[in-house]
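Let's study my pick:
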Amino acid sequence: MTALDVIRARRPDFKPSVAVVLGSGLGGLAAHMDEAMAIPYADLDGFPQPGVSGHRGQLVLAKAGDTRVVLLEGRAHLYETGKADAMKVAVASLAALGCETLVLTNAAGGLDADMEPGSVMVLTDHLNFTGQSPLFNEPGDERFVDMVDAYDPELRRRLLKLAAGMELHLHQGVYAWFAGPQFETVAEVRAAGILGANAVGMSTVPEVILARHARMRVAGLSIITNKAAGMSEFTLSHEQTKRHAALATDKVQQLLLAFLKDHKNGQGKGA
């Protein structure tokens, strides 16, 4: 059975409209939702087996208010698989289930002086420093995806409005994707800043490209877990990433829940 067949067999009448990929530290969101049912990635052919601590590796079908939602608790990274399309089956399955909107979250290093650990940034655009695309070897002309407004402006406005109502300040900025797993060098961070980046990380961008290829609308949130390389006296580590992600977990979960409950079914897929 395909991954899509397994998901439909587990909950035949479940028709979601929005999906969320949960990055480091956000795997507890399902506990705040209703009628949650988890399916391990191991049961879903083609889904990744995350090898990074903080990524559970399961799909959750749940409800936030009246909105039916798919949560992906964990992702695969380019540095784990060597493949930019490691999330291809997962994203394609979300689109086939009926998800028209994909919200992506991640942990990132901040370049802006006012982005302290625990800050949250809504993504406006991205820079791809890897030279990789999940659409390599994809047949047909649909692989030539328009990436203007890849991060949907209307979804961004909704997140900003909801955050303001919660007295949560959301930074806005450009996310730069590096391959990892090593953290960026000081020179790489400096170059990214010159080119317009506000945060750096090792994920998200392949999923954005895959989602736009599937004509899904996309929103992105980065939890700033550290100052980028060379911008503080601290040594960077994954333990630091997980520890500082916890500073923003509650407020990001509250924002996501508000966004999901407010989600309007049938908004249509982006062109």
Summary: DSSP finds seven helices and nine strands in the chain. The mean pLDDT is 90.
